[in-house]
Input
Amino acid sequence: MELSSDPAAATVEMSQVPSKDDEPSDSDGHYESLPPHVSVATHMTAGAVAGILEHTVMYPVDSVKTRMQCLQPDPNAQYRSVYQALKRIIQTEGIFRPLRGLNITMMGAGPAHALYFACYERVKHSLSDVIQSGGNSHLANGLAGSVATVLHDAVMNPAEVVKQRMQMYNSPYRGLLDCLQTITRTEGLGAFYRSYSTQLTMNIPFQAVHFITYELMQEQLNPHRLYHPGSHIMSGAAAGAISAAITTPLDVCKTLLNTQENVALNSMNISGHLSGMANTFRTVYRLGGLAAFFKGAQARIIYQMPSTAIAWSVYEFFKYFLTKQQFDQDAGPRAM
Output
């Protein structure tokens, strides 16, 4: 991220060693600038924390989204809204039922997002140097987000498969280990990557739109690229909502590939396991027409808006905090 060239925009920049006397108060509205090249370890740590919080805070809504995307749901698992779905699930299946599969999600989200943000920052700066001589480039942001997604999904895809199998109504698995063992024994290791191509087809445009929207809004709300929590939250929420709405049809296909919804596949006389993006698109269309591609759209947007806002605000805070801490440590020996 760029440092401000306007000295009035921030009293202290992160490229300088701050002293307590120099630091502005929050009431002044000033924030210290984020450095353009912080360490990879900082990006990975901030990304891991942001990813875990992003997936855990709104996880019950994600469970609802998976169920609402079922193409032929059980009569007891048909919901009109996110609130009604959560209320019924808790009343009929227990208060912890919406959290089923959270453990594998947290195990995957940490390393996946560590790679994701570290790769994004490194590629973004490298491409920006080439495309726009170090300036902010929307093309660089989009390409960096796409490259980062390939690494993220390689780690996260198996966790997504297990998570969605456990989120389904009447899931036959007793727990995480039972789900892993059953899938491996009955479908092979390839089952954990059956939806990988569809996931990439969905997430590459999702993340390209996501990062471009976030960076575009940062240019408007936070042009000097200072640490400004409000702008990170608003930019993240808008980026999540727009990206989620655009890519919902692909998310429906991904859910069908991950869950291998038995009732729906049996009604289509599909034996074995559904695979391939083209086959999945045809199956979804035959089962529900164009409307089927937007099942769960409301839940997906409700989930993504706060999740993405949380991810960006936490990521920017930890990047700021860890970098400031490193500068303070470096300043110690010099002060002596």
